[in-house]
Amino acid sequence: MHRLLRTWAARGPWARLLLPLAWLYGSIGRMRALLYRIGVLPTERLPIPVVIVGNLIAGGAGKTPAVRAVVDILRAHGRRPGIVSRGYGRHDQGVVEVRADSSAAEVGDEPLLLRLRSGAPVVVGRDRPAAARELLRRHAHIDVIVSDDGLQHLALARDVSVIVFDERGAGNGWLLPAGPLREPLPRAVGPATLVLYNAPSPSTPLAGYASTRRLSGAVELASWWAGERPRLEALHALRGRRVLAAAGVALPERFFEMLRSFGLDIEGLALRDHHDYASMPWPSGTSDVIVTEKDAVKLRAERMAPTRVWVAALDFRPEAGFAEQLLELLPPPSTTASSAHGHSIA
User: CA-CA distance, 176 to 244, in Å (whole number)?
Assistant: First the structure.
């Protein structure tokens, strides 16, 4: 029903009919934030810094590649990051560590992708503070936690927030379900908040950092699971063939357009976000299929024959000033001694 209401809202005239629900949604959100602010609902602060990466706009703004970019920046500057996530679509909502051999059904497709591509330890759980405590218990060397989503989950205190937007900006500017916003667009962001645009230029009035987004190459599914790096040559080799492109992501057309920009002749197969691939959605006998990495974590080469499945990887790079500002906002590692992990978490 929530997805249906959002679809109606995108059709212009329907949005105004949904405004009473949007006002109710906003009132509940404001009351909840107030309860956290005055201490009625508890906020837990960890002994090491926490970076929250999330969206104000619902669906597909580019949060997962932004998390990977933040982790890469931190690691490149000597930090030892770990990741916590809810793990959307899991069968269980308890706290679980993501392993390289975990299934997407156990831990969620995006957390599994983050574990495989970043190499950072990842723990999932609906209760973010509990997931963070478990991450610290299992990996005492971690000196900063990156939360995949969680901007609206106020139970976990944060040192830095990163708000991700794409080309859609704030849409019509209204809250769900009349518009795409989870909370109102602020006039300005606080001193510990960065805005990152998954787009070549800002799409809201908020000052922030643009990013470049392109495909870095492709690799066959079995080789992707073996850790082989995607290559541009593999994408170029698919030119001149009729290829089916399948995408179980929030904005599949974005993926299809990126493939077409490489000169590929594709037939797009748009699937529901987090599609589980319990059965293959393409016709039997399809020769070549290309998918996103988020889809690949739910596919195994032994199930694909006779279809040859290719995995296309995304290269997402924030402009240089983003890394500098992120590092300035974080306390230096020397102030977050590893001995603090043994102390109680208030």
Answer: 34
> DSSP string of 117-170?
HH---EEE-SSHHHHHHHHHHH-TT--EEEEES-TT-TTB--SEEEEEE-TTTT
To 5 degrees, how large is the angle CA 197–CA 267–CA 117?
A: 45
pLDDT in tens, 69-94: 999 999 999 999 999 999 987 878 89
What is the token pair recorded at 263? Answer: 């000169």
On whether the CB atoms of residues 71 and 118 are closer than 8 A, the answer is yes
Token pair in block for residue 202: 């800002």
What is the C-alpha to C-alpha distance for residues 122 and 114, in angstroms, rounded to an integer? Answer: 8
Other beta carbons within 10 Å of 104:
24
Q: Taking Cα atoms as reference points, which of 258, 253, 254, 259 lies closest to residue 288?
A: 259
Give the residue from 36, 39, 69, 48 showing the smallest Cα distance to 159. 48
Judged on CB neighbours under 10 Å (0-12, 13-18, 19+), 282 is middle
Helix axes 109-118, 63-76, angle to 10 degrees: 30
pLDDT value of position 317: 97
Compute the distance between CA of residue 271 and CA of residue 294 in angstroms, rounded to an integer.
12
Separation in Å, CA 1 to CA 5, 118, 122, 271:
6, 34, 31, 18
**Rounded CA separation 74/138 (Å):** 20
Q: Are 265 and 241 in contact (CB under 8 A)?
A: yes
On whether the pTM is more than 0.85, the answer is yes
CB 330, CB 144: distance < 8 Å: yes
pLDDT at residue 201 is higher than 60: yes
